[in-house]
Amino acid sequence: MAHVSRLLWEDIVQALLQSRKDEYADGRGNVIAIDVRAFAGNVDCTRTLMAPGAALYQVVKADGYGFGIERAIRLGLDAGVDGFCVGTIQEALRAKALAPAHPILLFTACPPALLAGVACQGVIVTVNSVAAYQALDGLEGARFMMEFDCGFGRFGLDHAAFDALLAREGQRTRPRCLGGYTHFGSRAGAAFDEGLRRFDGFGAMLRAAFGDDQLLMAAASHGLVWRPGLPYPGAHPGSLLYGMVPAAVAPGFAPVLRSVTSPIIQVNRIAEAQSLSVGYGSGVMLPAGGATGVFPLGWNDGLSTGAALGSVLVRGRRAPVIARTLFHSIVDLSGIDTPAIGEAVTVIGTQGGERIGLHDAADAMEIAATELHFRLAGAITRGVFGGDHES
Ligand SMILES: *Cc1c(COP(=O)(O)O)cnc(C)c1O
Protein backbone atom coordinates (compact mmCIF):
# COMPACT_ATOMS: atom_id res chain seq x y z
CA MET A 1 0.00 0.00 0.00
CA ALA A 2 3.04 2.21 0.57
CA HIS A 3 3.60 2.96 -3.13
CA VAL A 4 0.01 2.79 -4.23
CA SER A 5 -1.40 6.29 -4.37
CA ARG A 6 -4.61 6.93 -2.53
CA LEU A 7 -6.46 7.59 -5.77
CA LEU A 8 -5.26 4.36 -7.34
CA TRP A 9 -6.16 2.42 -4.23
CA GLU A 10 -9.69 3.82 -4.31
CA ASP A 11 -9.94 2.74 -7.95
CA ILE A 12 -8.83 -0.74 -6.99
CA VAL A 13 -11.36 -0.98 -4.18
CA GLN A 14 -14.14 0.27 -6.41
CA ALA A 15 -13.19 -2.21 -9.12
CA LEU A 16 -13.04 -5.06 -6.64
CA LEU A 17 -16.40 -4.13 -5.20
CA GLN A 18 -18.07 -3.73 -8.57
CA SER A 19 -16.22 -6.69 -10.09
CA ARG A 20 -15.50 -4.57 -13.12
CA LYS A 21 -13.76 -6.30 -15.97
CA ASP A 22 -10.57 -4.33 -15.84
CA GLU A 23 -6.99 -4.62 -14.78
CA TYR A 24 -7.63 -4.62 -11.06
CA ALA A 25 -10.75 -6.69 -10.91
CA ASP A 26 -9.23 -9.49 -8.85
CA GLY A 27 -6.26 -7.53 -7.63
CA ARG A 28 -3.55 -9.83 -8.97
CA GLY A 29 -2.46 -7.60 -11.83
CA ASN A 30 -2.97 -10.05 -14.67
CA VAL A 31 -4.05 -8.36 -17.87
CA ILE A 32 -5.61 -9.70 -21.01
CA ALA A 33 -5.79 -7.46 -24.07
CA ILE A 34 -7.69 -7.84 -27.28
CA ASP A 35 -6.73 -6.58 -30.69
CA VAL A 36 -9.51 -4.44 -32.10
CA ARG A 37 -7.74 -4.07 -35.43
CA ALA A 38 -7.27 -7.81 -35.81
CA PHE A 39 -11.01 -8.28 -35.36
CA ALA A 40 -11.83 -5.67 -37.99
CA GLY A 41 -9.27 -7.27 -40.34
CA ASN A 42 -10.79 -10.70 -39.73
CA VAL A 43 -14.23 -9.33 -40.62
CA ASP A 44 -12.85 -7.94 -43.89
CA CYS A 45 -11.11 -11.25 -44.68
CA THR A 46 -14.30 -13.14 -43.87
CA ARG A 47 -16.28 -11.05 -46.35
CA THR A 48 -13.88 -12.05 -49.12
CA LEU A 49 -14.80 -15.70 -48.42
CA MET A 50 -18.56 -15.05 -48.52
CA ALA A 51 -20.87 -14.76 -51.50
CA PRO A 52 -20.98 -11.13 -52.69
CA GLY A 53 -23.52 -9.12 -50.71
CA ALA A 54 -24.18 -11.89 -48.17
CA ALA A 55 -25.01 -10.86 -44.59
CA LEU A 56 -22.38 -11.53 -41.92
CA TYR A 57 -23.83 -12.76 -38.64
CA GLN A 58 -21.15 -12.70 -35.94
CA VAL A 59 -21.47 -15.56 -33.47
CA VAL A 60 -21.10 -14.17 -29.94
CA LYS A 61 -22.15 -17.24 -27.97
CA ALA A 62 -20.10 -18.53 -25.01
CA ASP A 63 -20.04 -15.00 -23.59
CA GLY A 64 -18.64 -13.48 -26.77
CA TYR A 65 -16.19 -16.36 -27.30
CA GLY A 66 -14.85 -15.65 -23.82
CA PHE A 67 -14.31 -11.91 -24.26
CA GLY A 68 -17.57 -10.86 -22.66
CA ILE A 69 -20.63 -10.48 -24.82
CA GLU A 70 -20.81 -6.68 -24.58
CA ARG A 71 -17.22 -6.37 -25.72
CA ALA A 72 -17.70 -8.85 -28.56
CA ILE A 73 -20.80 -7.05 -29.77
CA ARG A 74 -19.07 -3.68 -29.66
CA LEU A 75 -16.27 -5.15 -31.80
CA GLY A 76 -18.86 -6.36 -34.28
CA LEU A 77 -20.79 -3.10 -34.41
CA ASP A 78 -17.56 -1.17 -35.03
CA ALA A 79 -16.53 -3.60 -37.76
CA GLY A 80 -19.94 -3.38 -39.44
CA VAL A 81 -21.31 -6.90 -39.07
CA ASP A 82 -24.95 -7.37 -40.03
CA GLY A 83 -26.31 -9.49 -37.19
CA PHE A 84 -25.43 -11.55 -34.12
CA CYS A 85 -25.96 -15.17 -33.08
CA VAL A 86 -26.20 -15.98 -29.38
CA GLY A 87 -26.22 -19.16 -27.35
CA THR A 88 -28.46 -18.41 -24.38
CA ILE A 89 -31.58 -16.42 -23.58
CA GLN A 90 -29.55 -14.17 -21.32
CA GLU A 91 -27.12 -13.44 -24.14
CA ALA A 92 -30.04 -12.81 -26.47
CA LEU A 93 -31.52 -10.16 -24.19
CA ARG A 94 -28.17 -8.50 -23.60
CA ALA A 95 -27.45 -8.48 -27.33
CA LYS A 96 -30.87 -7.00 -28.09
CA ALA A 97 -30.24 -4.22 -25.58
CA LEU A 98 -26.85 -3.41 -27.11
CA ALA A 99 -27.75 -3.74 -30.76
CA PRO A 100 -31.49 -3.13 -30.95
CA ALA A 101 -31.47 -2.50 -34.70
CA HIS A 102 -29.52 -5.66 -35.57
CA PRO A 103 -31.07 -9.08 -36.01
CA ILE A 104 -30.26 -11.34 -33.05
CA LEU A 105 -30.55 -15.07 -33.71
CA LEU A 106 -30.81 -17.42 -30.71
CA PHE A 107 -29.33 -20.83 -31.50
CA THR A 108 -31.00 -23.96 -30.22
CA ALA A 109 -30.46 -23.49 -26.53
CA CYS A 110 -33.59 -23.59 -24.45
CA PRO A 111 -36.66 -25.70 -23.85
CA PRO A 112 -39.59 -24.97 -26.22
CA ALA A 113 -41.64 -23.61 -23.32
CA LEU A 114 -39.36 -20.56 -23.11
CA LEU A 115 -39.23 -19.79 -26.83
CA ALA A 116 -42.39 -17.71 -27.05
CA GLY A 117 -41.18 -15.34 -24.34
CA VAL A 118 -37.86 -14.74 -26.10
CA ALA A 119 -39.50 -14.36 -29.50
CA CYS A 120 -41.75 -11.65 -28.02
CA GLN A 121 -38.61 -9.66 -27.16
CA GLY A 122 -37.81 -9.34 -30.87
CA VAL A 123 -35.19 -12.09 -30.86
CA ILE A 124 -35.21 -14.49 -33.82
CA VAL A 125 -35.57 -17.92 -32.27
CA THR A 126 -34.65 -21.33 -33.65
CA VAL A 127 -37.12 -24.04 -34.53
CA ASN A 128 -35.26 -27.34 -34.31
CA SER A 129 -38.16 -29.63 -33.45
CA VAL A 130 -41.89 -29.97 -33.87
CA ALA A 131 -42.31 -29.03 -30.22
CA ALA A 132 -40.39 -25.78 -30.75
CA TYR A 133 -42.58 -25.02 -33.76
CA GLN A 134 -45.76 -25.60 -31.82
CA ALA A 135 -44.57 -23.40 -28.99
CA LEU A 136 -44.71 -20.42 -31.35
CA ASP A 137 -48.15 -21.17 -32.74
CA GLY A 138 -50.13 -18.05 -33.55
CA LEU A 139 -47.60 -15.70 -32.00
CA GLU A 140 -48.08 -12.29 -33.59
CA GLY A 141 -44.85 -10.63 -34.73
CA ALA A 142 -42.58 -13.52 -33.75
CA ARG A 143 -39.83 -14.53 -36.15
CA PHE A 144 -37.89 -17.75 -36.32
CA MET A 145 -35.37 -19.71 -38.37
CA MET A 146 -35.27 -23.44 -38.83
CA GLU A 147 -32.20 -25.46 -37.99
CA PHE A 148 -31.60 -28.42 -40.27
CA ASP A 149 -29.96 -31.70 -39.47
CA CYS A 150 -27.64 -32.24 -42.42
CA GLY A 151 -26.42 -35.64 -41.31
CA PHE A 152 -24.62 -34.84 -38.06
CA GLY A 153 -27.31 -36.17 -35.75
CA ARG A 154 -26.84 -33.23 -33.41
CA PHE A 155 -29.40 -30.47 -33.78
CA GLY A 156 -32.15 -29.69 -36.18
CA LEU A 157 -35.10 -30.93 -38.12
CA ASP A 158 -34.74 -34.03 -40.21
CA HIS A 159 -36.65 -34.36 -43.48
CA ALA A 160 -39.72 -36.03 -42.00
CA ALA A 161 -40.15 -33.35 -39.31
CA PHE A 162 -39.50 -30.61 -41.83
CA ASP A 163 -42.13 -32.02 -44.25
CA ALA A 164 -44.66 -32.13 -41.43
CA LEU A 165 -43.95 -28.52 -40.49
CA LEU A 166 -44.11 -27.27 -44.05
CA ALA A 167 -47.54 -28.83 -44.46
CA ARG A 168 -48.76 -27.02 -41.34
CA GLU A 169 -46.98 -23.81 -42.19
CA GLY A 170 -49.10 -23.48 -45.34
CA GLN A 171 -52.10 -22.87 -43.12
CA ARG A 172 -50.66 -20.32 -40.76
CA THR A 173 -49.27 -16.88 -41.42
CA ARG A 174 -47.69 -16.15 -38.09
CA PRO A 175 -45.14 -16.28 -36.76
CA ARG A 176 -42.86 -15.69 -39.71
CA CYS A 177 -40.14 -18.04 -40.95
CA LEU A 178 -37.07 -16.02 -41.97
CA GLY A 179 -34.92 -18.88 -43.20
CA GLY A 180 -32.84 -21.84 -42.13
CA TYR A 181 -29.32 -22.76 -41.09
CA THR A 182 -27.04 -25.62 -40.21
CA HIS A 183 -23.59 -25.78 -38.63
CA PHE A 184 -20.59 -27.50 -40.16
CA GLY A 185 -18.02 -27.71 -37.42
CA SER A 186 -15.43 -29.85 -39.13
CA ARG A 187 -13.05 -29.64 -42.03
CA ALA A 188 -14.22 -30.40 -45.52
CA GLY A 189 -14.61 -33.96 -46.67
CA ALA A 190 -17.18 -36.30 -48.15
CA ALA A 191 -19.53 -35.84 -45.17
CA PHE A 192 -19.25 -32.08 -45.53
CA ASP A 193 -20.25 -32.16 -49.20
CA GLU A 194 -23.06 -34.60 -48.53
CA GLY A 195 -24.23 -32.26 -45.74
CA LEU A 196 -24.22 -29.33 -48.14
CA ARG A 197 -26.35 -31.31 -50.60
CA ARG A 198 -28.87 -31.98 -47.86
CA PHE A 199 -28.85 -28.35 -46.84
CA ASP A 200 -29.54 -27.30 -50.43
CA GLY A 201 -32.48 -29.71 -50.48
CA PHE A 202 -33.94 -28.10 -47.34
CA GLY A 203 -33.21 -24.64 -48.72
CA ALA A 204 -34.99 -25.29 -52.01
CA MET A 205 -38.10 -26.47 -50.16
CA LEU A 206 -38.01 -23.47 -47.85
CA ARG A 207 -37.81 -21.09 -50.79
CA ALA A 208 -40.57 -22.88 -52.63
CA ALA A 209 -42.78 -22.51 -49.56
CA PHE A 210 -41.92 -18.99 -48.40
CA GLY A 211 -40.22 -17.19 -51.26
CA ASP A 212 -36.72 -16.39 -52.43
CA ASP A 213 -35.88 -13.97 -49.66
CA GLN A 214 -35.34 -16.80 -47.16
CA LEU A 215 -32.08 -16.34 -45.26
CA LEU A 216 -30.05 -19.52 -45.72
CA MET A 217 -26.82 -19.92 -43.74
CA ALA A 218 -24.47 -22.89 -43.91
CA ALA A 219 -21.13 -21.11 -43.85
CA ALA A 220 -19.61 -21.01 -40.38
CA SER A 221 -15.83 -20.90 -40.00
CA HIS A 222 -15.12 -24.22 -41.63
CA GLY A 223 -17.52 -23.68 -44.52
CA LEU A 224 -15.86 -20.34 -45.28
CA VAL A 225 -12.34 -21.72 -45.07
CA TRP A 226 -12.82 -25.00 -46.91
CA ARG A 227 -15.48 -23.92 -49.41
CA PRO A 228 -15.03 -20.17 -49.95
CA GLY A 229 -17.81 -18.41 -51.80
CA LEU A 230 -20.66 -20.74 -50.79
CA PRO A 231 -23.66 -19.17 -52.52
CA TYR A 232 -25.83 -18.42 -49.47
CA PRO A 233 -27.30 -15.04 -48.49
CA GLY A 234 -25.80 -15.29 -45.01
CA ALA A 235 -22.74 -16.63 -43.16
CA HIS A 236 -22.43 -17.18 -39.40
CA PRO A 237 -18.83 -17.76 -38.33
CA GLY A 238 -17.43 -17.65 -34.83
CA SER A 239 -13.89 -18.94 -34.34
CA LEU A 240 -12.66 -17.54 -37.65
CA LEU A 241 -13.63 -13.99 -36.65
CA TYR A 242 -11.73 -14.28 -33.38
CA GLY A 243 -8.60 -15.58 -35.11
CA MET A 244 -8.71 -19.04 -33.58
CA VAL A 245 -8.15 -20.86 -36.87
CA PRO A 246 -4.38 -21.14 -37.58
CA ALA A 247 -3.00 -18.91 -40.32
CA ALA A 248 -1.84 -22.01 -42.21
CA VAL A 249 -5.50 -22.90 -42.71
CA ALA A 250 -6.91 -19.36 -42.81
CA PRO A 251 -4.28 -17.02 -44.29
CA GLY A 252 -4.74 -13.36 -43.41
CA PHE A 253 -6.60 -13.96 -40.15
CA ALA A 254 -5.04 -12.94 -36.83
CA PRO A 255 -5.86 -13.82 -33.21
CA VAL A 256 -8.00 -11.24 -31.42
CA LEU A 257 -6.58 -12.48 -28.12
CA ARG A 258 -3.60 -10.20 -28.41
CA SER A 259 -1.79 -10.59 -25.12
CA VAL A 260 -1.89 -12.10 -21.67
CA THR A 261 0.56 -10.65 -19.18
CA SER A 262 1.19 -11.22 -15.51
CA PRO A 263 3.50 -9.51 -13.00
CA ILE A 264 6.47 -11.19 -11.32
CA ILE A 265 5.56 -11.39 -7.64
CA GLN A 266 8.54 -13.32 -6.31
CA VAL A 267 12.15 -13.88 -7.38
CA ASN A 268 14.26 -16.67 -5.87
CA ARG A 269 17.98 -16.90 -6.46
CA ILE A 270 19.55 -20.35 -6.58
CA ALA A 271 22.92 -20.25 -4.78
CA GLU A 272 23.78 -23.92 -5.29
CA ALA A 273 22.57 -26.25 -7.98
CA GLN A 274 19.43 -27.85 -6.69
CA SER A 275 16.44 -29.87 -7.59
CA LEU A 276 13.32 -27.79 -7.15
CA SER A 277 10.22 -29.60 -6.09
CA VAL A 278 7.19 -27.42 -6.66
CA GLY A 279 3.51 -27.83 -7.11
CA TYR A 280 2.33 -31.29 -7.89
CA GLY A 281 4.92 -31.94 -10.57
CA SER A 282 8.19 -33.81 -10.32
CA GLY A 283 11.47 -32.09 -9.42
CA VAL A 284 13.32 -29.76 -11.79
CA MET A 285 17.14 -29.28 -11.75
CA LEU A 286 18.28 -25.68 -11.47
CA PRO A 287 21.93 -24.60 -11.94
CA ALA A 288 23.90 -22.60 -9.39
CA GLY A 289 23.62 -18.87 -9.97
CA GLY A 290 20.23 -19.19 -11.57
CA ALA A 291 16.93 -17.80 -10.42
CA THR A 292 13.24 -18.54 -10.57
CA GLY A 293 10.32 -16.17 -10.72
CA VAL A 294 6.69 -16.62 -9.77
CA PHE A 295 3.72 -15.06 -11.57
CA PRO A 296 0.11 -15.33 -10.44
CA LEU A 297 -1.49 -17.37 -13.22
CA GLY A 298 -2.15 -21.07 -12.78
CA TRP A 299 -4.43 -23.94 -13.58
CA ASN A 300 -7.37 -22.03 -12.25
CA ASP A 301 -6.77 -19.40 -14.92
CA GLY A 302 -6.79 -21.93 -17.69
CA LEU A 303 -3.08 -22.54 -18.18
CA SER A 304 -2.15 -26.07 -19.08
CA THR A 305 -2.19 -28.82 -16.53
CA GLY A 306 -0.31 -31.25 -18.72
CA ALA A 307 3.38 -32.02 -18.93
CA ALA A 308 4.01 -29.30 -21.51
CA LEU A 309 4.03 -25.99 -19.63
CA GLY A 310 5.31 -23.81 -22.47
CA SER A 311 7.49 -20.76 -22.12
CA VAL A 312 6.95 -17.06 -21.50
CA LEU A 313 8.79 -13.83 -22.27
CA VAL A 314 10.67 -12.03 -19.52
CA ARG A 315 12.94 -9.06 -20.26
CA GLY A 316 12.42 -9.75 -23.94
CA ARG A 317 13.81 -13.29 -23.62
CA ARG A 318 12.13 -16.65 -23.78
CA ALA A 319 12.08 -18.46 -20.43
CA PRO A 320 10.69 -21.94 -19.76
CA VAL A 321 7.87 -22.43 -17.29
CA ILE A 322 9.04 -25.20 -14.99
CA ALA A 323 6.12 -25.69 -12.62
CA ARG A 324 2.54 -24.68 -12.19
CA THR A 325 0.12 -24.74 -9.29
CA LEU A 326 -3.52 -23.83 -9.02
CA PHE A 327 -2.82 -20.09 -8.82
CA HIS A 328 0.85 -19.67 -9.80
CA SER A 329 3.46 -20.53 -12.38
CA ILE A 330 7.20 -20.69 -11.82
CA VAL A 331 9.55 -19.64 -14.56
CA ASP A 332 13.24 -20.46 -14.86
CA LEU A 333 15.09 -17.13 -15.07
CA SER A 334 18.58 -18.64 -15.35
CA GLY A 335 20.60 -16.65 -17.83
CA ILE A 336 18.22 -13.70 -17.77
CA ASP A 337 18.97 -10.39 -16.05
CA THR A 338 16.92 -10.91 -12.93
CA PRO A 339 13.75 -8.88 -13.25
CA ALA A 340 12.25 -6.75 -10.52
CA ILE A 341 9.06 -7.53 -8.69
CA GLY A 342 6.16 -6.18 -10.74
CA GLU A 343 7.87 -6.61 -14.09
CA ALA A 344 5.74 -8.18 -16.79
CA VAL A 345 5.76 -11.81 -17.81
CA THR A 346 4.23 -12.22 -21.25
CA VAL A 347 2.36 -15.48 -21.70
CA ILE A 348 0.95 -14.37 -25.04
CA GLY A 349 2.15 -11.28 -26.84
CA THR A 350 5.31 -9.39 -27.78
CA GLN A 351 8.25 -8.33 -25.62
CA GLY A 352 11.37 -6.83 -27.09
CA GLY A 353 11.70 -8.45 -30.48
CA GLU A 354 10.21 -11.75 -29.33
CA ARG A 355 6.65 -12.83 -29.85
CA ILE A 356 4.55 -15.73 -28.55
CA GLY A 357 1.26 -15.82 -30.43
CA LEU A 358 -1.87 -17.71 -29.37
CA HIS A 359 -1.03 -20.52 -31.77
CA ASP A 360 2.63 -20.74 -30.63
CA ALA A 361 1.56 -20.93 -27.00
CA ALA A 362 -1.03 -23.59 -27.78
CA ASP A 363 1.53 -25.66 -29.69
CA ALA A 364 4.00 -25.37 -26.80
CA MET A 365 1.35 -26.50 -24.31
CA GLU A 366 0.25 -29.25 -26.69
CA ILE A 367 -3.40 -28.21 -26.77
CA ALA A 368 -5.60 -26.77 -29.53
CA ALA A 369 -5.55 -22.99 -29.97
CA THR A 370 -9.33 -23.00 -29.59
CA GLU A 371 -8.99 -24.67 -26.22
CA LEU A 372 -6.28 -22.31 -24.99
CA HIS A 373 -8.28 -19.31 -26.18
CA PHE A 374 -11.37 -20.37 -24.27
CA ARG A 375 -9.43 -21.31 -21.18
CA LEU A 376 -7.63 -17.97 -21.00
CA ALA A 377 -10.33 -15.65 -22.29
CA GLY A 378 -12.95 -17.48 -20.26
CA ALA A 379 -11.01 -17.61 -17.02
CA ILE A 380 -9.09 -14.38 -16.99
CA THR A 381 -11.70 -12.01 -18.36
CA ARG A 382 -14.09 -13.04 -15.66
CA GLY A 383 -11.80 -11.33 -13.24
CA VAL A 384 -9.35 -9.23 -15.16
CA PHE A 385 -9.39 -7.22 -18.33
CA GLY A 386 -6.85 -4.79 -19.67
CA GLY A 387 -7.25 -2.03 -22.22
CA ASP A 388 -8.13 -2.83 -25.78
CA HIS A 389 -5.24 -2.12 -28.07
CA GLU A 390 -5.60 -0.36 -31.34
CA SER A 391 -2.76 -2.14 -33.04
C1 LIG B 1 -20.97 -22.11 -32.75
C2 LIG B 1 -21.85 -22.10 -33.94
C3 LIG B 1 -21.44 -21.45 -35.12
C4 LIG B 1 -20.08 -20.82 -35.28
O1 LIG B 1 -19.12 -21.84 -35.23
P1 LIG B 1 -17.63 -21.74 -35.79
O2 LIG B 1 -17.40 -23.12 -36.29
O3 LIG B 1 -16.80 -21.35 -34.63
O4 LIG B 1 -17.62 -20.72 -36.86
C5 LIG B 1 -22.32 -21.44 -36.17
N1 LIG B 1 -23.54 -22.04 -36.09
C6 LIG B 1 -23.95 -22.67 -34.98
C7 LIG B 1 -25.30 -23.31 -34.95
C8 LIG B 1 -23.13 -22.75 -33.87
O5 LIG B 1 -23.54 -23.37 -32.77
From TrEMBL:
The keyword Ligase does not apply. Residues 256-385 form the Alanine racemase C-terminal domain. It comes from the Bacteria. Its cofactor is pyridoxal 5'-phosphate. Keywords: Isomerase, Pyridoxal phosphate. Its EC number is 5.1.1.1. InterPro entries: Ala_racemase, Ala_racemase/Decarboxylase_C, Ala_racemase_C, Ala_racemase_N, PLP-binding_barrel. GO terms for molecular function: alanine racemase activity. It is an enzyme of class 5 (isomerase). It catalyses: L-alanine = D-alanine. PANTHER family: ALANINE RACEMASE (PTHR30511), ALANINE RACEMASE, CATABOLIC-RELATED (PTHR30511:SF0). This is alanine racemase. It comes from Sphingomonas colocasiae.
